[in-house]
Write a structure and sequence with these properties.
This is Protein HflK. It is built from nine helices and nine strands. With 367 residues, the chain is an alpha+beta fold. Among the domains are: 67 residues, no CATH class; 111 residues, Band 7 domain (Tetrahydropterin Synthase, Chain A, 2-Layer Sandwich), CATH 3.30.479. The longest helix has 70 residues.
């Protein structure tokens, strides 16, 4: 053997069973059964033995049955105390139930104690949470497909923001409150969408749809006493199914063209109507002015006739002759004949008849 000549014989420890060097030590200066001496790491049985020795020294009365029982009691008490103390975070509320029956008190944030295991505590987050209902556009899921009031299919994806206001009711009045909220929200959205035209969901009246859905969800959850308060319902996406998306887009473009044509027609009609109204107003103004002018002229003629009649009543002969002369003047003014009244034996003054006729003619044309 390779080690047979080390230290005069024996085994690998230098002394075959107790011996080659006469002191029973191995090459590290200790026996094979005492690995704790020197730099050799302790073996498992040595660690166990030392631990038992320490426990015996710690337990009053040595290693008797009473000391072990006391140790077991201490360990069990520590474990029970650890399980009985719990912490409630600021965004949580705790509900303690004894034998499955919840207590009326709700644990607020902080450190609390309950009698475990006969009592059990459940923690609920009371901050605002979000529940998403429906599938995104383009996905293969049909969760958000709904039938509108005008017999159109629409894929609606919406979210519900809610908060827990009664932790005890949230935990014990319904089996799965979050799943209940999902089902109630989807049912409410289907009810509202089914009673409205599809355009209300697409673009025209989303806010009114959201408010109506929120009211239905809250009333249903209150009837179930879930302890949930719905803050907001937001329609995130509303689109037709993928199979008819192209046809629907074409319909949308046609409707937009229709709206544009109607708007242009209304603008043209308003323009023509405004112009017609302006012309009608102008005609009415001209008619009123003509009426006033004719009436005034008639009144003036009547007043003139009255004044002439008054003068005629005072001097009939003079007035008659004046009227005759004025009438003859008006009649003969446009005539091209010249009448001269000269006395016999007296020279007639020279007149340029052509010039006089042309002058009178030009005046008549001007008038």
């Amino acid at each position: 053997m390779p080690w047979s000549n080390q230290n005069g014989g024996g085994g690998p420890w230098g002394g075959g069973g107790g011996g080659g060097n006469g002191n029973g030590k191995g090459p590290w200066g200790s026996g094979p059964n005492r690995p704790g001496n020197g730099n050799n790491p302790p073996e498992l049985d040595e660690i166990i033995r030392r631990s038992q020795d320490r426990l015996k020294r710690m337990i009053p009365g040595g290693a008797g049955g009473g000391g072990i029982a006391l140790l077991v009691i201490i360990v069990v008490a520590a474990l029970w105390l650890f399980q009985s103390i719990y912490t409630v975070q600021p965004d949580e509320r705790g509900v303690v139930s004894r034998f499955g029956v919840p207590k009326n008190e709700v644990s607020m944030p902080g450190l609390h104690f309950h009698f475990w295991p006969i009592e059990r505590v459940e923690l609920v987050k009371v901050t605002e949470q979000q529940a998403n209902i429906g599938a995104k556009s383009g996905s293969n899921s049909d969760a958000g497909l709904m039938l509108s009031g005008d017999q159109n299919i629409v894929n609606v994806q919406f979210s519900v923001l809610f908060a827990v206001t009664d932790a005890r009711a949230y935990l014990f009045n319904v089996e799965d409150p979050r799943d209940t909220l999902q089902q109630v929200a989807e049912s409410a959205m289907r009810e509202v969408v089914g009673s409205r035209p599809v355009q209300d969901v697409f673009r025209d009246n989303r806010q009114a749809v959201s408010e109506e859905v929120k009211t239905i969800i809250q009333s249903t959850l209150d009837a179930y006493k879930t302890g949930i308060s719905v803050r907001t319902v937001a329609i995130e996406d509303a689109a037709p199914p993928r199979e008819v998306a192209d046809a629907f887009d074409e319909v949308q473009r046609a409707e937009q063209d229709e709206d544009r044509f109607v708007e242009e027609a209304n603008r043209y009609a308003n323009q023509k109507l405004g112009r017609a109204r302006g012309e009608a107003s102008q005609i009415r103004e001209e008619a009123a002015a003509y009426k006033d002018r004719v009436v005034k002229e008639a009144e003036g003629e009547a007043a003139r006739f009255t004044s002439i009649y008054t003068e005629y009543a005072k001097a009939p002969e003079v007035t008659r002759e004046r009227m005759y002369l004025e009438t003859m003047e008006g009649v003969m003014k446009s005539s091209k004949k010249v009448v001269m009244d000269g006395q016999a034996g007296q020279p007639v003054p020279y007149l340029s008849l052509n010039e006089l006729i042309n002058k009178n003619t030009s005046k008549g044309e001007t008038k």
